[in-house]
């Protein structure tokens, strides 16, 4: 195998593929990265058996040549050293060559590395996906769906299913839902221009997979193809193949958990509320749920306060656009509220409360697609 | 004037230990008891009555603390047995600590009848020996109670020293005396070494405190973990723990146990006992206004084999029901079907109510939401009448019912008042 490749393209692909490679894997060869050179270009593969990523660098694209002098072949390289080597090479082009004894030579300018490779035949074949259910989505929309939900997955393994994001399509509407049982984030998106009518609701993608996918995908209006099978999901663009295992088990039915009536509705500028809660949280104790308190006041004002007995307290009044319904005093995690306000991504938000011990909702005033739900904190 | 008694870079620590405190208080109260074998015991008429404290006269006959009453009476047929009068002990203890507080404010009570003092800054009051002598004399003159005082450069050595001469002893333990005074003692006598640790150490031919002091640190760590190193340091006279007057307020756990009226395998009876224990612990927790995140169950079997098993939780709990359920589950998981002699429940990893908040859970918030009106009412009344009238009420009623069983620990709350 031999090829000369643009270092920048190689670096980007290496970084993407590294997202799937773990030094702690039960299959030793998976600590390596597979390189495959063919007439069409170079393919890099990484996998920790939960996530598998293939990144393709075409020999030529839009008239720009990325890979030259290709002699087909394949090799597995130690992922521990390869990325740093590529990053620090002196020239814009890199030559990679293997001999019959799996010795790999990496040249760039006058620098020359010799690495021991492993037999690519020993690298497991990625499962071939025979997907029945496929749909397409613009990449920037997918990234939004991920950003608005994935932060709410559980980080604890007590209920493993909650470490994932539930994805479903019903009646032509795609919905992402994540909850750690203390807060819930959900985003709906009507699917347009789909050729086939598909629907499913059992898919739960590990939060980690989506976080990594979001890092790899660059904001773009190009589409990504998503295919679902019983236990895997595949995201595919022209040069990227991202395969993730799905979580086993039944995702709890969350729609019934969302209150459909409210007693107090506060409409308020999202940024002002966010900043005020951020300030109050400075004096809300880190280790005790980071709790702040919200109190409705007359004259369309709300009070946000944070209190830490040994340190001090902070009180701030924030003007709301409107306050309707009953008076309210409620305590909640400042972090959850800030996460939710950021995820809603709207200038004006509507916060709907049904009581100090009941979940409350945060939505944009002008659309229902993003919904954030937070459980309050009970103070004794 | 007496600066040669006070080190430049070190501390002078006292450990004041009242001698057979409960018995001594009774004798001060009723001097006709003096010189007689006296034992204070819980429930003298029941089988499970055990000796809480005994006078030196009783000890001479072989009566020991925690000995069952029937056995104590066999050792000493003339034994006078009295029920504890906690109010008397509480008052006596308060007076005793007041005397200590006349010397320095740096006092750390560790139980009703003992405490540490840091007199490093008390040079103007005389030499450590003079101060100790004065304290002992005042406690004897004013309260008619005997005590022993240990004087040393740190808490561990002071504690060991106060144990060396009883009653009415004053013992100085300097670092240079270690090999002569401390190291020859059998390992069981070291403070911090319980029966189980001692047995382990003896397996390794560590028979005396000196053996421990000179044992390989690495091996000790393997044997006892971090505590191994700590004990070895102590044996070598090293202990940096400060005398902390605030330590009184950090209760580490609240627990209670009871010996069954007869050994049993009866599930119903065991549940009833666990329920009672849970009630007691919950009552004491609410009296102290704390919540717990750890519940420990202790089972003693008919053959005196003890096991303790605990569960750590994510959320704080405080109700008797929660305590009972967790203790019950622990019992189900760990009971080996043998007859049970004693059961105990301890709530640990405590936090003060006002500092604790509970993040509600989407799958279970309903149970709290249902009580929302009640909480709201409490809130409103609090605003109208001041700090939560309900909390104070429960705390007050707890006092009057004397639910507090671990008297020694509960006591610590009200010295200084």
Automatic annotation (TrEMBL), chain A:
InterPro entries cross-referenced by the UniProt entry: DNA_clamp_sf (IPR046938), DNA_polIII_beta (IPR001001), DNA_polIII_beta_C (IPR022635), DNA_polIII_beta_cen (IPR022637), DNA_polIII_beta_N (IPR022634)
Domain called DNA polymerase III beta sliding clamp C-terminal: residue spans: 256-378
Residue ranges annotated for the DNA polymerase III beta sliding clamp central domain, each copy included: 137-253
Assembly: Forms a ring-shaped head-to-tail homodimer around DNA.
Protein role: Confers DNA tethering and processivity to DNA polymerases and other proteins. Acts as a clamp, forming a ring around DNA (a reaction catalyzed by the clamp-loading complex) which diffuses in an ATP-independent manner freely and bidirectionally along dsDNA. Initially characterized for its ability to contact the catalytic subunit of DNA polymerase III (Pol III), a complex, multichain enzyme responsible for most of the replicative synthesis in bacteria; Pol III exhibits 3'-5' exonuclease proofreading activity.
NCBIfam families named among the record's database cross-references: dnan
Protein name: Beta sliding clamp
Automatic annotation (TrEMBL), chain B:
A Pfam family of this chain: IMS_C
Keywords: Cytoplasm, DNA damage, DNA repair, DNA replication, DNA-binding, DNA-directed DNA polymerase, Magnesium, Metal-binding, Mutator protein, Nucleotidyltransferase, Transferase
Keyword Magnesium: yes
Cofactor(s) the protein needs: Mg(2+)
Protein family membership: Belongs to the DNA polymerase type-Y family.
Protein name, UniProt field: DNA polymerase IV
Transmembrane segments: none
UniProt binding sites for Mg(2+): 17, 113
Name of the gene encoding the protein in the UniProt record: dinB1
E.C. code: 2.7.7.7
Cofactor note: Binds 2 magnesium ions per subunit.
Subunit structure: Monomer.
Reactions it catalyzes: DNA(n) + a 2'-deoxyribonucleoside 5'-triphosphate = DNA(n+1) + diphosphate
Active site, per annotation: 114
UniProt source species: Thalassobacillus devorans
Domain UmuC, first and last residues per copy: 13-194
Site feature Substrate discrimination, where: 22
Record function comment: Poorly processive, error-prone DNA polymerase involved in untargeted mutagenesis. Copies undamaged DNA at stalled replication forks, which arise in vivo from mismatched or misaligned primer ends. These misaligned primers can be extended by PolIV. Exhibits no 3'-5' exonuclease (proofreading) activity. May be involved in translesional synthesis, in conjunction with the beta clamp from PolIII.
Main location: cytoplasm
Keyword DNA repair: yes
Cell compartments where the protein resides: Cytoplasm
InterPro entries recorded: DNA/RNA_pol_sf, DNA_pol_Y-fam_lit_finger_sf, DNA_pol_Y-fam_little_finger, DNA_polymerase-Y, DNApol_IV, PolY_HhH_motif, Rev_trsase/Diguanyl_cyclase, UmuC
């Amino acid at each position: 195998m031999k090829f000369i490749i643009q270092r920048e393209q190689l670096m980007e692909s290496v970084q993407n593929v590294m997202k799937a490679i773990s030094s702690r894997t039960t299959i030793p060869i998976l600590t390596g990265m597979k390189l495959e050179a063919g007439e069409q270009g170079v393919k890099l593969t990484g996998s920790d058996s939960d996530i598998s990523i293939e990144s393709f660098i075409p020999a030529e694209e839009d008239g720009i040549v990325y890979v030259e002098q290709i002699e087909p072949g394949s090799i597995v390289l130690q992922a521990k050293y390869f990325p740093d080597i590529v990053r620090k090479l002196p020239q814009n082009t890199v030559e990679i060559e293997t001999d019959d004894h799996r010795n790999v030579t990496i040249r760039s300018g006058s620098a020359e590395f010799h690495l021991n490779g492993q037999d690519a035949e020993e690298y497991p074949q990625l499962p071939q996906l025979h997907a029945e259910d496929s749909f397409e989505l613009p990449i920037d929309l997918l990234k939004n769906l991920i950003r608005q939900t994935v932060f709410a997955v559980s980080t604890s393994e007590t209920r493993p299913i909650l470490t994932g994001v539930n994805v479903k399509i019903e009646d032509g509407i795609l919905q992402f839902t994540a909850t750690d049982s203390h807060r819930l984030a959900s985003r709906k998106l009507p699917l347009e221009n789909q050729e086939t009518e598909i629907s499913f609701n059992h898919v739960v993608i590990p939060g980690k997979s989506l976080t990594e996918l979001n890092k790899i995908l660059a904001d773009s209006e190009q589409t990504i193809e998503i295919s679902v099978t019983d236990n895997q999901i595949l995201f595919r663009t022209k040069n990227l193949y991202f395969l993730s295992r799905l979580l086993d088990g039944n995702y709890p039915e969350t729609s019934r958990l969302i209150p459909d009536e409210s007693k107090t509705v506060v409409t308020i500028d999202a940024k002002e509320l966010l900043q005020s809660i951020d300030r109050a949280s400075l004096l809300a104790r880190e280790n005790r749920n980071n709790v702040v308190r919200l109190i409705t006041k007359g004259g369309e004002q709300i009070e946000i306060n944070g209190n830490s007995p040994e340190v001090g307290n902070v009180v701030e009044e924030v003007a709301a656009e409107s306050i309707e319904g009953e008076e309210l005093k409620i305590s909640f995690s400042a972090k959850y509220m800030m996460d939710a306000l950021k995820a809603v991504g709207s200038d004006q938000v509507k916060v709907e409360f049904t009581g100090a011990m009941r979940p409350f909702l945060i939505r944009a005033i002008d659309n229902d697609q993003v919904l954030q739900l937070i459980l309050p904190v009970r103070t004794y | 004037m007496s600066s040669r008694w006070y080190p430049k870079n070190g501390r002078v620590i006292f450990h004041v230990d009242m001698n057979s405190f409960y018995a001594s208080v009774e004798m001060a109260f009723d001097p006709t008891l003096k010189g007689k074998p006296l034992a204070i015991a819980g429930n003298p008429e029941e089988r499970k009555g055990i000796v809480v404290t005994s006078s030196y006269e009783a000890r001479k006959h072989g009566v020991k603390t925690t000995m069952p009453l029937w056995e104590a009476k066999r050792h000493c047929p003339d034994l006078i047995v009295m029920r504890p009068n906690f109010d008397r002990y509480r008052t006596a203890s308060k007076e005793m600590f007041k005397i200590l507080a006349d010397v320095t404010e740096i006092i750390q009570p560790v139980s009703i009848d003992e405490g540490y003092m840091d007199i490093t800054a008390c040079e103007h009051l005389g030499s450590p020996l003079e101060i100790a002598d004065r304290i002992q004399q005042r406690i004897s003159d004013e309260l008619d109670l005997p005590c022993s005082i240990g004087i040393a450069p740190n808490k561990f050595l002071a504690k060991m020293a106060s144990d060396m001469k009883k009653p009415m002893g004053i013992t100085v333990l300097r670092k240079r005396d270690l090999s002569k005074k401390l190291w020859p003692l059998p390992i069981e006598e070291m403070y911090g070494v319980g029966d189980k640790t001692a047995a382990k150490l003896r397996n390794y031919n560590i028979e005396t405190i000196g053996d421990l002091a000179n044992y390989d640190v690495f091996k000790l760590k393997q044997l006892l973990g971090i505590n191994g190193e700590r004990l070895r340091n102590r044996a070598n006279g090293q202990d940096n723990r400060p005398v902390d007057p605030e330590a009184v307020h950090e209760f580490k756990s609240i627990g209670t146990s009871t010996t069954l009226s007869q050994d049993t395998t009866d599930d119903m009876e065991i549940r009833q006992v666990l329920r009672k224990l849970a009630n007691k612990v919950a009552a004491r927790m609410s009296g102290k206004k704390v919540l717990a995140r750890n519940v420990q169950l202790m089972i003693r079997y008919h053959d005196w084999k003890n096991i303790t098993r605990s569960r750590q939780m994510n959320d704080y709990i405080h109700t008797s029901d929660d305590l009972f359920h967790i203790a019950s589950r622990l019992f189900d998981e760990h009971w080996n079907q043998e007859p049970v002699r004693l059961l105990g429940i301890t709530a640990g990893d405590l936090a003060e109510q006002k500092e604790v908040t509970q993040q509600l859970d989407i799958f279970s918030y309903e149970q709290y939401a249902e009580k929302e009106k009640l909480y709201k009412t409490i809130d409103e009344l609090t605003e109208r009448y001041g700090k939560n009238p309900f909390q104070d009420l429960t705390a007050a009623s707890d006092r009057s019912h004397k639910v507090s069983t671990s008297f020694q620990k509960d006591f610590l709350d009200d010295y200084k008042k």
